[in-house]
Amino acid sequence: MTLTLHRVKAEPLDRASFAPFGDVLAPSQHGIDNNTLLDGGHARMSDPVPAARRADFDVLDYWGDIATISRDTMRLGYLRTRKRPLTVSWFERHLKGTQSFVPLGGADSVICLAPASPHLPDPAAVRAFRLDGRAGINLHPGTWHWTPFPVAEAADFVILVREAVVDDDLHFVDIEARLGLRIEIAL
Length: 187
What we know:
By secondary structure, the chain is mainly beta. The chain has helices at residues 15-18, 34-39, 54-57, 165-168, 175-179; strands at 4-12, 22-25, 32-33, 61-62, 74-82, 87-88, 90-93, 99-104, 109-114, 127-131, 136-139, 144-145, 149-150, 154-162, 171-174, 181-186.
């Protein structure tokens, strides 16, 4: 089989561009603060917050609608990716659940993806996104992806996956062998 080299340019991460693959884990336009939680009846307080002490209580902004994760039992893992050439010859997916990558330490990285499909990844739909270390991502079930590429020597992530992912939902495909394809990512 002849090997085809498919080149993709890493795009900046934004909600609209990333939507076919999942969610961007970063503040949206509709955050709320503690006072809004109190005033809207969203919080059940063990002790009342007197008006004179509202400033002591209002210490955060909250965005509760950035992503929906799988409802199965989930587990956190720690992932350290190693520097390597920006080429992809394998993809993986998880059909039964979401997978989240939350960067630690602010390191830049790149992730290569293809939309969920009932068959092999569509080479024409492959995209790459630059993760600047300030926002995480949550992949929709079935999204084809490969381990993020650190721009420097390494990048650390907390990942959130279904607890049983290794037992029943870890699908790897060798796109070189199956599609005659290797993907090269340009920064």
